[in-house]
Structures are given as structure tokens and as C-alpha cells.
Amino acid sequence: MSEALPEQLEQIREDFQELEVRTRLELLLEFSLDLPELPERYRDHPDLFERVEECQSPVFIFLEVDENQIVHLFATAPREAPTTRGFASILAQGLAGLTVDQVLAIPDDYPQDLGLSEAVSPLRMRGMTAMLARAKRQIRDKTAA
Amino acid sequence: MTAPLDPSRRFADYAHPERLVSTEWLQDHLGTPGLVVVESDEDVLLYEIGHIPGAVKIDWHTDLNDPVERDYIDGAAFAALVGQKGITRDTTVVIYGDKNNWWAAYALWVFTLFGHEDVRLLDGGRAKWVAEERELTRDRESAPSVDYPIVQRNDAPIRAYLSDVLDHLGNPLIDVRSPEEFSGLRTTAPAYPEEGALRAGHIPSAQNVPWAKAAADDGTFRSAAELNDIYREGAGLKDGDSVIAYCRIGERSSHTWFVLTHLLGFEGVRNYDGSWTEWGSAVRVPIVKGTEPGAVPGR
Fold first, then answer.
1. Which of A35, A59, B31, B58 is the most exposed place for a label (fewest CB within 10 A)?
2. Which PANTHER family does this UniProt record tie to the protein (chain A) (predicted)?
3. CB-based burial of residue B189 (10 Å sphere; 0-12 exposed, 13-18 middle, 19+ buried)?
């Protein structure tokens, strides 16, 4: 038995699934426009960020685990890469406030469940799958010590 | 009815200058009856964050590829798609896109499979339009639906299948992928997702000319003289050659197909869209590793 998805990830999944295929793109665009700016403390630290090589456009992510074992995902991608920004924004919102254990328990194929493959193409979805995998790996590295 | 040609002198040395328009020309002709502007990008949402006023969107993956088989859509689906975009058989279609018109060239090649006569590229693509601070809009697409005839796709003149490539060995092949993919260090473009090829390397005798060599820093095509240096001097192509270009899934090689066919005037150039994701997984086809083209095996 797999564990239930954390609430906000389940909500995002339902929000996409309720829409017609074409309209799902519009929701992805909204996510894209909502990708938060980097907080002040990380703005001048490109060294901390890891490039997601599997994405077609340059996107960089950085995971932080705070003293309460809560995960924060920060991402930056150019404005001319809205699809990739959308993927990063879904993960940033979806992971917000989750614990290390909750994030590590997210199924690796969560991106495939959003119903975006048809609207975006399966090939492009691989970028988001890779982003989630890299996020989990960063968390494992940070909590391994 | 078709739109007038762009008389820019900088296109005059190309074999088919009628296949290009400049950003200035497009600006001046927006709204001309008989002209439809199409945006075709790698990023499926780029059109939505701002596009040339009046432009419609055609996506290579979700619109032009057959959703089930690894093939392009058929005549009926193409007619339905472009008719919805306000394109008739006589329309002048100007295509532009991101990444040096990489996907725009791919869309143009697919229009050519259906024999659409007047289809052109915007030289410099989306990046040049944006860099020149020309107008973009987020208006929704609002083309009137028109009738486009159902035309059978005619693949043979410009599209090569795997069996065609095997028969072609001994004639010029241009591999437009990155040097790392050509030599067999990797099967995907640097920084691109894995698209599934089981073996790495290149088709024997292929010359490696990465597609982007044909583009200048501002995304426009290099001059005819520079292109001749790259493809005739560099890759050894000669008039009368039969040429096949390939890459990984046939998109980057569409760009090279455009350059060889429309800018340099080679006839009968074909794009092998199966490309490395087919060849690199096919059983018992010859492969060469390393940076040298290698010899065609005896048959």
C-alpha cells in the first residue's frame, strides 16, 4: 500500500485532472507566473544551485532543510522558459511545509499523474520527473550526515 | 492570394530568398490579407507569455505528431489543424520560433511534406523580434476557421526512412548533432533529456556539422558565403550530391535541411526524422564511434 499523498500535492493533482486537456496548459502557465523570486539570502549564491540537466531550458534548484526537518525548494529559471518554470513552481508549492520524510515518500512518478503528458508531451514531462528526483537526492545528501 | 516577397538585399545571395522574411518586413506586413504568422517553439507555453500580434500557435509535438504512431499527422488532420488557424492552401505562412528557429524549421518542413507552396521563416526568429523590442501580445488566438483541402502527405522527396538511409550509404550524410553525440560519448544533446537510444555513435561516413553553425549570434542565418564555407568546403558537399541530414529525432536536422535546400540550393535533400533514436536502437545497422566519419562497410 502506498501512503496517501500530502494534501497540497493531492490538491494540485486534482486541480489539473479536473480540467480539460487544453485548459491544463493554462493552469501550468499560472504556476509558471507564480514561481516565487529567490529570497534575498540566496540571490547572490548561484554556487548553491544545481542545474537540472534533464530540462530543456536552464533551471536551477536548491533544497533547504530547516532545524525542524521542514523542506524548502527554491528554483530559478528564465522567463523565456515558462514550461520549466511551471514545473518548478508546482514542486515549490507542492513541497512547501513538508517534512523530509514526507518529501522522500512522494512517488517518483507523481509528475505523470498530473494529466499533463497529453497537453505538454511525455518528453517534456521528463524534465519535471528529473527535477523531483534531484530534489529528493539533495535532501538525502543533506540529511545523510 | 499570397503576400509580397521581402526584397531585402541581405537575402539576395541565397538560392531561394523568397523563403525568408526579415523582422522589418514582417512588422510592415502584419495584417496583410493572405498572410498568417505561426509561432512554433520548443517551450510549449512560450506563445502564451507573449507572441507577435495576430500570430497563431502550432506545437511540434502536440499538433504535428501523430498521437499514436511515430509519424506525422495525415492529410485530414493537417487540413483540420491549419484550417482552424486561418490557413488556406494559398496562404503565405511565415513561421518563427525560439532557439534559432529550430522548431520553426521543423514545422516548415512538415508543411512542405503536405506541399504547402508559400511557407517562409522569419530570419532571426522570436529572439530577434524580442531583442528589437517589437510588439508582443498575450491576446488569445483568434483566427477565422477556413477550409484547407485534404492533401496526401508526400514524404519521398524530402523525408528518408531507415531503409532509405541504408540504400543511401556511400552518399553524403550530415550528422547535425553535437560532437559528443557524434563520437558516441553520449546519446542525448548536452543538457537534454534521454530520448532512448540503445547505442551511441554515428552512421558510417557521416560528416558532423552541428546545426547551430548555420546561425549567427543574433539568430539570423549566416551569409551564403559563410554557409558555403561550412557545408561545401568544410563538409565536402558538391552540386548534384544527394544528401541526407539527421539528428536525434529529426528536429535539428530540419534546420539544416532548410539551409541546404533553400539557402544553398541543393536539390533532393532529405531529412531522416527517425534519426539517432531509431538508428541507435535498430538491430544490425552499422555504427561508427569516435570523431572520424569512418568508412561505409562493404555489403
1. B31
2. SUFE-LIKE PROTEIN 2, CHLOROPLASTIC, SULFUR ACCEPTOR PROTEIN CSDE
3. middle
Map residue A4 onto helix, strand or coil.
coil
Nearest to A29 among B48, B192, B193 (CB): B48
CB contact under 8 A, B193 and A118: no
Residue A52: name the closest of A120, A130, A110 by CA. Answer: A130
pLDDT attached to residue A40: 86
CB nearest to A82's CB, from B43, B61, B195: B43
CATH class of A2-144: alpha beta
CA distance A97 to A7: 11
Q: Exposure string (b/e) for A95-110, b if CB count within 10 Å is 16 or more?
A: beebebebbeebeeeb
Domain residue ranges in chain B: 9-132, 159-280
Compute chain B's Rg from CA coordinates: 19
**CA-CA distance, A12 to A4, in Å (whole number)?**
14
pTM of the model: 0.91
pLDDT classification of B189: cutoffs 50, 70, 90: low
Convert the pLDDT of each residue in B20-53 to its tens digit: 999 999 999 999 999 999 999 988 999 999 999 9
The confidence score (pLDDT) of residue A55 equals 63
Q: Are A133 and A108 in contact (CB under 8 A)?
A: yes
CATH number among 3.40.50.300, 3.40.250.10, 3.10.25.10, 3.40.50.10490, domain B159-280: 3.40.250.10
Neighbour-count burial for A46-81, b at 16+ CB within 10 Å, e otherwise: eeebeebebbbbebbbbbbbeeeebbebbbbbeebb
Helix (H, G, I), strand (E, B) or coil at B218: coil
CB B177, CB B247: distance < 8 Å = yes
Question: Interface pTM (ipTM) of the complex?
Answer: 0.82
Q: Report, at the CATH architecture level, how domain B9-132 is classified.
A: 3-Layer(aba) Sandwich (3.40)
Which ranges in B169-250 belong to alpha helices (H)?
179-183, 224-228
Selected residue of B40, B43, B99 to mutate for chain A interface (largest A Cβ count, 10 A) = B43
Helix (H) or strand (E) holding B95: strand B92-96
Q: Cβ–Cβ of B62/A57 closer than 8 Å? A: no
